[in-house]
Amino acid sequence: MTAAAPAFEVFFDGECPLCRREIRMVKRLDRRGRVLCTDIKAPGFDASPLGLSHDDLMARIHGRLPDGELVEGVEVFRRMYSAISPSAFGPLVALTRLPPLSWALDAGYRWFAKNRLRLTGRCTDETCEVP
Known about the structure:
The chain is α+β, with helices and mostly antiparallel strands. The protein has one domain (8-119).
């Protein structure tokens, strides 16, 4: 019996402690190997085949569907957890698509993505603008 092909690929920052924690949890939950987790900070990682720059990938989380379509932001989490278990996470994912919850989640994620390096203590002169 061969393993099923991943239903979703997530591109994550392997140097981000919050991102690593989320990915560890995803790997524990993903018993069927439906999510491929790709560390954009791994040596040799090249963003160019995606049509994105490394800075694009660092600015917000991205994922890729089997047909090559890219998604970003909160939609990545929806797709990732749906791939792990539609029956377990499907109802929760559906709730996250309802306004005004979807708007709040999108706004919250945009704020987090903009401040992620600062929140995780990884600001440098090159990575965080001085206000």
